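re: that chain from earlier
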Amino acid sequence: MTVENQLAKAKADRTLTETERQRIAKEILDATKDVCKEIITDGQRALNLATKMEAEAAKNYRLSQSELDQSSAVRAEAESYRTRVLAEVDKEAKEYIDLAKSTIDKECLSLRTQAAQEAQRILGQVELMKTAVQEELETQKIYTDAARIKVSSDELLSKLRAIQSDPDYPDGSEEDGEPSGTEVNKDQLAFTLEQTALTENGVTDDVLSEEYGPELEVPASDSPELDTAVVEPKEGQNGKKNSRKASTAK
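^ sequence. v structure.
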């Protein structure tokens, strides 16, 4: 084989090798392009997904922030409502306690007033009863004094009548012109009888005036009248009954 043939064969091999190299390079380039396209497609898909996720994350953040702000507002409103409710409850409780205390004070004052009025009424009844009893005792005392004075006057009258009926009773005076002792006794007895009659007539008014006076006038009240038993005195020696009204009339 000549050199030319070898050279031609070498060129042919070189051409074939270059063609094969270009084919392989083209295949590699095509394969690389396909892989790069897939990678780009996957990357774009991943980028789109990431963008979408980022948008969703931003949306969720905004929603979360909005919910947080709303929750904060609700919490602040709830805290304000709680404070207002507690203040209203405290105010109403204080007003209720003050009202209850005022009502209790009024009821206690009313009860104390009623008790004081009742005690005053009972005390007034007791005073009336005491006055009535004292008046009755004084009336009995007046009756006793009047009876005693009546007995004394009757005794003096009997003595005077006995003296006047005595046959030895002198009618004139002694020779020297001076009154006798018997005449003096007669005058004394007459004076005593006169004073006794005056005393008997005015003893009731004097005793009532001295013992009671205008204080016996008890003003009318709502208290019921006291029933006091009036003791009927016994008949005196003159055959008439001594009564409280008769004594007062004298």
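Residues 69 and 75 are 10 Å apart (CA to CA).
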